[in-house]
Amino acid sequence: MDCLEKVRSQLAPKGVLRAGISLSNKFLVHQKDRSEDDYLCGVSPSMARSIARTLAVPLKLVAFKGPGEMLDGFEDGRCDIANFSNQPKRAKKVHFTRPYCQIEASFLVREERKKIQGRNFFDREGVRIVSKARSAYTLWLEDNIKRASIVLAPSMDACYDLFVEKRCDLFAGLKPSLASYGKHLPGSFIWADSFTHVGQAVGCKHGMPEAHHFLDSLVETYIEDGTIERMIAKYAPPGSLALPPSKCDSSSSSMASKIRGDDERSE
């Protein structure tokens, strides 16, 4: 069995690549009319389509409401790969590639809390941070916050309601999303820095080294040859997504070059 055939048997054992897509991040995926075959579009679906084309197998996009639900679906076998961010807690269950794009996570700050600015201003006794449950940046906060308290909500809208009604100090989220909420709260502002960068990656099951190496090398090639940059330019709002720092690995890149052939990947 050659290399590509081995990878195909691992990622699409039933002849179809089932790719998990989270619908919660509008900067990575957009929904169109469900009557259309390609009703999901964006950087994340485009990545899945490119992978399926390289494997020469049909693709089935499996949509989930959010990354937490997608992790559940990945664990119970509803998808073969999943496109979401690599976090230590998730990495125990998913073998991630290097990130193919990233988004800054920061805080929306109440006007009256300007004085808590400074290094690690968000991790102080008495500070309350509202954040979306099971999101990548919330997982980071849960792993790193030692003094402040984290208030969880099921959605960004619910987070905003808590931020306003319960007068929480900080509203954690992706910078592009926070900007839209900040417009409704006069005097509020987005912290200029970021507490983490949410890197979007492709995940497969552990115990499949050939499949993981294939996916990781493919991601690296797509970064280097401009494929990801073209996807971002086509689908994402300006300034919402960025390329990650490139970690060039000649062995991975050469493998990807052999595997991908000359197929057209930039949709």
Can you put this structure into words, describing what you see?
The strands form 2 sheets. Strands 1, 4, 5, 6, 7, 8, 9, 10, 11 and 12 form a 10-stranded mixed β-sheet that branches. With 267 residues, this protein is of the alpha/beta class. The chain folds into 2 domains: 3-102 and 198-249, Periplasmic binding protein-like II (D-Maltodextrin-Binding Protein, domain 2, 3-Layer(aba) Sandwich); 105-196, D-Maltodextrin-Binding Protein, domain 2 (3-Layer(aba) Sandwich), CATH 3.40.190.10. The chain is built from 10 helices and 12 strands. Strand 2 (30-31) and strand 3 form a beta hairpin.
What is this entry, summarized?
It contains 10 helices and 12 strands.
Q: What's the SSE blueprint?
A:
Blueprint: H1 3-11, E1 17-22, E2 30-31, E3 40-41, H2 43-55, E4 59-64, H3 67-75, E5 81-85, H4 88-91, E6 95-96, E7 101-109, E8 128-132, H5 136-144, E9 149-153, H6 156-165, E10 170-174, H7 175-182, E11 189-190, E12 196-204, H8 209-224, H9 227-235, H10 250-260
Parallel strand pairs: 1-4, 1-5, 8-9, 8-10
Antiparallel strand pairs: 2-3, 5-12, 6-12, 7-10, 7-11, 7-12
Helix pairs in contact: 8-10
> Could you report the average pLDDT, rounded to the nearest whole number?
89
CATH classification class of the largest domain: Alpha Beta
Strand tally = 12
Strand content of the residues, in percent?
15-25%
CATH architecture descriptor name of the largest domain: 3-Layer(aba) Sandwich
Which regions are unreliable across 5 or more consecutive residues at pLDDT < 50?
248-267
Domain unit count: 2
User: What spatial form do the alpha-carbon principal axes imply?
Assistant: elongated
H/E series, N to C?
HEEEHEHEHEEEHEHEHEEHHH
Oligomeric composition of the shown chains: single chain
What's the helix count? Answer: 10
> Which bin fits the share of residues in helices?
25-40%
Q: What is the CATH superfamily classification of the largest domain?
A: Periplasmic binding protein-like II
The CATH topology name of the largest domain reads: D-Maltodextrin-Binding Protein, domain 2
Radius of gyration from CA coordinates: 19 Å
